[in-house]
Write a structure and sequence with these properties.
alpha/beta, 8-stranded mixed β-sheet, two-stranded antiparallel sheet, about 15% strand
Length: about 475
């Protein structure tokens, strides 16, 4: 069961042919043509904080198979890309709270093996709270290079032009820097005349919330601009909160007992509660992702396999109801984005759209509602705190896989022509750079590999009739 609980592969972020195997320290991957990487892949599911290169296996996707059938010849002509920012630093308050907690309660640790925790201090810079970190920069930079290789003969074959290639991000710096890192390798390096590397400047568009006439970024940051969504999810009776509260108690009892025993805590000095466990877990997570700190030298040392799995399920419970299939409004929330995506595809097929590639960079709460509206990763039964553990571990809504750092959704339009010269249009769907099937398209609205722009509006009627302003009003 243990292996089933781990992520089934790791994202390779380098060029070449990749291999992977299960080893003593988890999944390992490397390029057969190069030396093994210096950074170890993380073994655990850190939900939405999971690094992109650890979230899922990625092979050479230029060999996924042709789009055309029979004598059809197809060419990729238009790309709609929705991406999440790359890995980031933690919240300063979390790190500060753990530092203070260990300073005041650390004397309760009696097991000498974990004495290093008594003097644990913040290992991160304090002036980069929630900023893109070095891992995140690399995630997006290498991704941009992969897109340049994959689409360099068609969609991205021309030099950068702001009319044909658009970049948009939210007002958060981690999304703007992610967009910049992606653009650097996909369009800028070697494609202009500036500097020794012949760089080309790229225009970035953002709806900034400091503008006087700012009406909210309803395309990428839609969850922040929907009052009714805030009212529903802030309610104490919101299903997500109820389920999280139930499972929190289970986690506090079960994980707390294991950690207390491992540390040999003097409970008269420190009675470990959920808040303390969560602080240790967050520090473990960011030290692993950002600093690649060996487990035995970080707060990770206090946790067992089951502990990570319980924290992951707790986080996924909340995400399932706030941005997934758990509530109706969460499934409707992305309709402005879906409308923009499908209209871009349709207009291009009708010769009414000059944009060849549109790149948008947002957040996890951009990606997850979009996946929900697409009808992807639907669990057979709703996720609940008291569901059988085997069922919980087999869930499809696992954010460490579907919405890790730098997660992305692509819709690629292909112009196809058969031997008689008849033109048709096919749209390919990719998630985290892997081709997947459209779950609601086709005559019987079941899984199909490619979908026409017209059929997409039939499959997703809300994109053609998005009532965002209406359902976002508080009744």
């Amino acid at each position: 069961m243990m292996k089933a609980m781990l992520l089934l592969g790791l994202l390779a972020a380098a060029e070449g042919t990749f291999t992977s195997h299960w080893g003593h320290h988890g999944w390992h991957w490397w390029d057969r043509n190069r030396n093994p990487p210096s950074r170890r892949p993380t073994k655990y599911d850190f939900t939405t904080k999971t690094p992109y290169w650890s979230s899922k296996s990625l092979s050479n996707h230029e060999h996924e198979g042709p789009v055309g059938e029979g004598d059809e010849r197809c060419e990729a002509v238009h790309l709609q890309h929705v991406g999440r920012h790359g890995s980031r630093y933690d919240d300063n308050d979390d790190v500060k709270d753990l530092e203070e907690l260990l300073a005041s309660k650390g004397s309760a640790i009696k097991n000498p093996r974990y004495a290093f925790l008594k003097s644990w201090t913040n290992p991160f810079p304090t002036n980069v709270e929630k900023h893109l970190n070095e891992v995140g920069k690399e995630e997006l930079y290498k991704m941009g290079a992969r897109y340049r290789r994959k689409y360099g003969r068609d969609i991205l074959s021309e030099d950068y032009n702001p009319i044909y290639h658009t970049f948009q991000h939210t007002w958060k710096t981690r999304t703007s820097r992610s967009a910049s890192a992606f653009a650097l390798s996909s369009f800028q390096e070697g494609r202009g005349q500036l500097g020794r590397d012949n760089n080309e400047p790229v225009a970035m568009f953002c709806l900034w919330n400091g503008l006087e006439d700012y009406d909210g970024d309803k395309i990428i940051r839609f969850s922040d601009n929907c009052p009714n969504y805030d009212a529903i999810t802030d309610d104490d009776n919101f299903p997500g909160k109820v389920q999280e509260d139930i499972f929190e108690k289970k986690l506090e009892e079960e994980v707390g007992a294991r950690v207390t025993a491992k540390l040999q805590l003097d409970t008269s000095v420190w009675k470990l509660d959920f808040d303390g466990l969560e602080l240790l877990y967050k520090a473990c997570m960011f030290e692993t992702v950002v600093l690649d700190t060996p487990r035995r030298h970080s707060p990770c040392a206090v946790f067992e396999e089951k502990d990570y799995e319980m924290f992951a399920f707790l986080k996924d419970l909340g995400e399932y109801y706030e941005g997934g299939h758990g509530t109706q409004i969460a499934q409707e929330l992305a309709c402005p984005l879906m409308s923009k995506l499908l209209n871009g595809l349709k207009k291009y097929s009708e010769d009414d759209n000059e944009v060849q590639a549109a790149f948008m960079f947002g957040h996890s709460d951009t990606i997850q509602p979009l996946l929900a509206q697409l009808g992807l990763y639907v669990d057979p039964v709703p996720l609940t705190a008291d569901m059988p553990w085997e069922q919980a571990m087999a869930r499809k809504w696992r954010t460490g896989v579907i919405s890790p750092m730098a997660a992305n959704v692509d819709m690629v339009l292909h112009r196809c022509e058969n031997a008689e010269g008849v033109t048709s249009w096919k749209t390919e769907l990719l998630h985290n750079e892997r081709r997947i099937r459209w779950p609601k398209c086709g005559a019987d609205k079941t899984n199909v590999q490619f979908c026409s722009p017209d059929d997409l509006f039939t499959a997703y009627p809300m994109a053609g009739d998005c009532k965002y302003d209406e359902f976002c009003k508080i009744p």
